[in-house]
Amino acid sequence: MLWSIIPQEVVFDGLEDCTLLDYQLENCPCRLRRLPGGDFGLEAVCSTNPKHFLQSNLQPGRRIFLPK
Prior knowledge:
The protein has one helix spanning 8-11, and strands spanning 20-25, 28-34, 40-45, 63-64. The chain is globular. The longest helix is centred in the N-terminal third of the chain and has 4 residues, at 8-11. The protein is mainly beta. It is built from one helix and four strands; from the N terminus they run αββββ.
């Protein structure tokens, strides 16, 4: 259940099609989202180390190119 004035269809629009991947990026556990071009975007930092959240190279939205 979602407590919001925004309809659930609007909030969750497009989430059915997303592919998330748990990945170790620069010794930091992260969650990546597959983007339409085949590369990935940094969705979330899943670390317990506060220093990881201050690193500019680990900011959500960053594009990640993984080797195939």
